[in-house]
Here is the input.
Amino acid sequence: MAMLDRALVRVLPAVPRSVVRRISNRYIAGTTLADAVRVVKQLNADGKTATVDVLGEETRTRRETLDIVRAYHDVFEAIERERLDSNVSIKLTALGLNLAYELCRANLFKVVRHAAESGNFVRIDMEDSSTTSETLELYRELRDEGLDNVGVVLQAALRRSIRDIHALAPLRPNVRLVKGIYVEPPLIAYQEFEEVQQNFVRCLHELLEAGSYTAIATHDELLLAEGKRLVAERGLAREEYEFQMLLGVRELVANRLVRDGHRLRIYVPYGEHWYRYSLRRLQENPKIAGYVASDTLNRLFGANGR
Here is the structure.
């Protein structure tokens, strides 16, 4: 199956844009904020919470970063106006991290302060390893300023993540724990699938031991089972942790988590940069390509069989 997943990824750039658009319709809310609002409303009706992400990382000009900031202001207003159960997720390269640290910092503080005024929460996404240290430094600066409506992401694939958990422990951070989708060298990242799984479990254990609110973000059946086991062992209440999944991926598993009484948050991306996001997400994580293909085939054959 892994070989098939990688084969699917290799042919993605040759797939017509219109086909990618049809496939991505399940995994991206759409191009507009109205699309994201519609999707989040349905998720909320299904007993799920959401995280809205404005697509557009790696901005190239100061003006583009300001456009992203304004887009997030609009998102907060829509969440408040429509009474949505949703927070937001941001990428620091979208706010100008690759242009200038201070530009990114200023934009980040604007977004997080606006969220605080709206009674909302901001998750700072973790990108490739070249940004990890600066991302955690900016998170600490926000917390030093008394802004606690903000969380970070840690990647189990990175060897440093256990050390980062210990270093952040005094802050009792709100952390989304993921495997990590970026291709990194062996010196800084685990390369084998089982190694990443094992480190995910170690990281989760350490986060829970430190009293961190942890978002267990995975579609991996083994890790979902381990997550449920660890929170049950600690007797955690529903509001003391959550699971997270991507929009449109493994929906039967997602629905089962909700039925079993777990809090589940769905990542809801939207924006004009849907095509680049679609290719990047699938290319960086062949396993997701397999889920996409499997789900799509099931829908096609299911429809033909009815």
